Amino acid sequence: MDKNKENRIYELVEDLNKYAYQYYVLDNPEISDKEYDLKYDELKRLEDETKFILPYSPTQRVGDVVLPEFKKYTHKASLWSLDKSQNVEGIREWHDRNKKAVEQYNSVHEDKLPPLRYVLTKKFDGLTINCTYDENGILVKSATRGTGVIGEDITAQAKTIRTLPLKISNKHVLEVHGEAVMTKEAFEEYNRTAQVPLKNLRNGAAGAIRNLNVLETARRKLSAYFYDVGYNEGPKFNTYIEMMKFIKDMGFPQDPYIKVCTSIEEIEEQFEYVKSIRDDLNYDIDGVVIVVDDMKTRDVLGYTIKFPKWAIVICSLLVYVFYVIRVRNIICNCNVYSK
Predict the structure, then answer these.
(1) Ranges for the NAD-dependent DNA ligase N-terminal domain (predicted)?
(2) What CA–CA distance (Å, rounded) separates 255 from 225?
């Protein structure tokens, strides 16, 4: 193969992935759509001519293919469910248990745990995806959560998400967890021409990811937000805030709402704030996730059979709001919004 053409392919792929990140994640495009299309067409022409296609080429985002089935994938680390609280009092009880465990540990160990600090993020109402990157930083697998141990391979479907990086600047194997969501804008655009309109955003996202027709997945124009490194062969993180910074630095889309709280009063205040902005968001959420920031404290707190003891979701008030809206929809236009 012509070495100049190979080098040009590498150059175009790097440039186009950078431009896509600027456009879809940063919302700050460096070049015009026309300039992008010209480079993309040149890349596609060279790939067709040389049959040399990089696995992280932007041309691999949308495949004109209908897959025969979903294959199983065993996650490198378990994807845990989260415990839920129906009210702030439940969060207070959870905090008291954490506080007692930290005090007990500190009373018998010289290496003291720091004061409890929590990080709050939105709980997205979409479909969890687990993305595996190899030692060269290349996306090699995406899978659904499934049982938490075994999921379904949805690599082709995940690649249609324009904000999902196909290659990152990292030299260690890792798995990054995120949530695939459908925005209100994408939902409305899809339904304008759909033969069978979607009922709601969550079903739109889940139905896209679990669709064997990859072109249909692409038509729904999903977005994604990433919030956790579940498996990591590289340097360990000391705090969740440090992990979230790493995720953002790697080019993954991340929701800007990340709040640090040190008291139940601060958590309650933030929960009320999230409730107040829920209707203004262009995607659905169904609660607020609260996690312990310090990783060593997480190790000390440990797990139950089902949940990590260092994380919890408060969701009842948001669910109540959703319920009222759905009832109104049923009464007003018989458009049942079910989940």
Answers:
(1) 4-334
(2) 6
Question: Which letter does DSSP use for residue 71 in this model?
Answer: P
Report all structural domains of the chain as residue ranges with CATH numbers, in order of start. Answer: 3-59 (1.10.287.610), 85-333 (3.30.470.30)
Q: By the 8 A CB rule, do 237 and 246 touch?
A: yes
Q: Is the pLDDT of residue 222 over 90?
A: yes
If you average pLDDT over residues 23-45, what whole number do you get?
Answer: 91
User: What is the band of 226 on the pLDDT scale with cuts at 50, 70, 90?
Assistant: very high
The HSE-up count of residue 168 (CA atoms within 13 Å, CB side) is 26
Confirm whether 159 is a catalytic residue: no
CB 131 within 8 A of CB 142: yes
Query: Distance between CA 28 and CA 21 in Å, rounded?
Result: 9
Q: At what angle do helices 184-193 and 201-209 cross, to 10 degrees?
A: 80
Average pLDDT on 160-185 reads 97
Chain-centroid distance of CA 46 in Å reads 33
- Whole-angstrom CA distances from 307 to 105, 291, 302 are 21, 12, 9
Please, where are the H alpha helices in the chain?
3-20, 33-50, 88-108, 155-158, 184-193, 201-209, 214-219, 240-249, 264-277, 295-301, 316-333
- Helix/strand/coil for 169: coil
Which of the following is catalytic: 123, 141, 159, 167?
123
Judged against a pLDDT cut of 70, whether residue 321 lies above it is answered with no
> What is the structure's pLDDT at 86?
87
- The pLDDT of residue 141 is 97
Tens of pLDDT, residues 126-151: 999 999 999 999 999 999 999 999 99
Element (H, E) at 242: helix 240-249
d(CA 154, CA 141): 8
DSSP string over 109-152: -SSPPPPP-EEEEEEESSEEEEEEE-TTSBEEEEEE-TTSSEEE
Q: The tokens of 220 are what?
A: 């729904």
pLDDT of residue 66: 82
Report percent pLDDT > 70 for the chain.
92
In angstroms, the CA 285 to CA 329 distance is 18
